[in-house]
Amino acid sequence: MNQQALTLPAHAAADPGVLPGYYAILRRELLLAMRSRGEAVQPAVFFVIVASLFPLGVGADTQLLTRIAPGVVWVCGLLAALLSLSRLFNSDYLDGTLEQLLLSPYALPALVAAKICAHWLTTGLPLSLIAPLLGLQFGLDGGELWLMVITLLLGTPLLSMIGAIAAALTLGARGSSVLIALLVLPLYVPVLIFGAGAVEASLSGVDYSGHLALLGAGTLLGIVFVPFVAAAALRISLD
Amino acid sequence: MNIAEFFNMGGYALYVWGSYGALALAIAVELYTLRLQRRATQARLLESKLMDEYETKT
Amino acid sequence: MINIFRFASPASFYPLAGKMIPWFAGAAVLLAAAGLYVAFIVAPTDFQQGEVYRVIFIHVPAAWMGMFIYLVMAGYGVLELGFNTRLSAMMMQALAPTGAMFTAIALWTGALWGKPTWGAWWVWDARMTSTLILLFLYMGYIALDNAIEDRRRADKAGALLVLVGAVNIPIIYFSVKWWNTLHQGASVSVTSAPKMAQIMLTGMLIMALACWMYSIAVSLARVRGIILEREKNTAWVDELIAANAVNKEGVTGGSS
Question: Computed over its alpha carbons, how large is the radius of gyration of chain B?
Answer without folding.
Answer: 23
